[in-house]
Amino acid sequence: MRSFSAVMFRALYSDSITLHLISEDNQAHVETLFQGFPDSEAMVAELRENYLPEYRHGRRMTYGFYSLLGEELAGMTVLTIDSWEERYGSTGADVFEHMRGRGVTPRSKPHLFYLAFELLGLNRVATGHRVSNLSSKRSIEKTPGFQFEGVMRESGVNERGEFEDECLYAILRRDWERLYDKSQVRVIH
Predict the structure, then answer these.
(1) Residues 56, 44: contact at Cβ < 8 Å?
(2) Please, which residues bridge with residue 161 across strands?
(3) pTM score, two decimals?
(4) Domains of the chain
(5) Using one digit for the tens of pLDDT, what is the confidence trace for 4-40?
(6) What is the enclosing helix (H) or strand (E) of 187?
(7) Which helix (H) or strand (E) holds 133?
(8) What 3-state class would DSSP assign to 22?
(9) CA pair distance 64, 47, nearest whole angstrom
C-alpha cells in the first residue's frame, strides 16, 4: 500500500472531465466557484459537510473533488477511505441541477477508481443509493464494475423524515483491472 505522502496531485483528467482535488488551501476559491446557481447554497453546504479533507492518524481519509465537464462546473465527487487496514473505501457525488443528465457522475468513476486502486492501493470501493433516488440508481447502474450486493434496511432518514432502505454496490480491484484502461486517466501535479 502506498503512503499518503506518495499521493500528491492537483487533479485527475479523463473523458473531458477534470476532477480538481479540494484542499484546505483552495476551499474558499471552490466556494466562490459554486456561487450563482439556484442550488448554490445546498451545494456549498454539501461541500462543507462531505467533501473537505479529513485526516486520521496522519492519513488522509477524504478525497473530495469539484468536477468540470469541459470548462463547465458540474458538481462534486468524493472517495472516502473507510479502512486503510482493510483497504476499502466508498464513493459518492453531488451534481448541480443544471448539469444533471449529462453522465458526469458515472464518467467520473474511472478517475476515482484510478485513485483508489492504482494510487492508494485499495481493494474495494462501495457506493449506494436510497431506494427513492432513481437518478443515483441509474448512475450507479451505468458504471461498469459496480455489482449489487444487497439492501441495508431503513439505513437512514430521507428528506421527508422517513426511514428508507439503501441499495449497496461495490467494485473490487480485480474488476477494475479487467474493465478499465488505467492509461485513460491522467494525473495532473
Answers:
(1) no
(2) none
(3) 0.92
(4) 4-188 (3.40.630.30)
(5) 444 689 999 999 999 999 999 999 999 999 999 999 9
(6) strand 186-188
(7) none
(8) coil
(9) 8
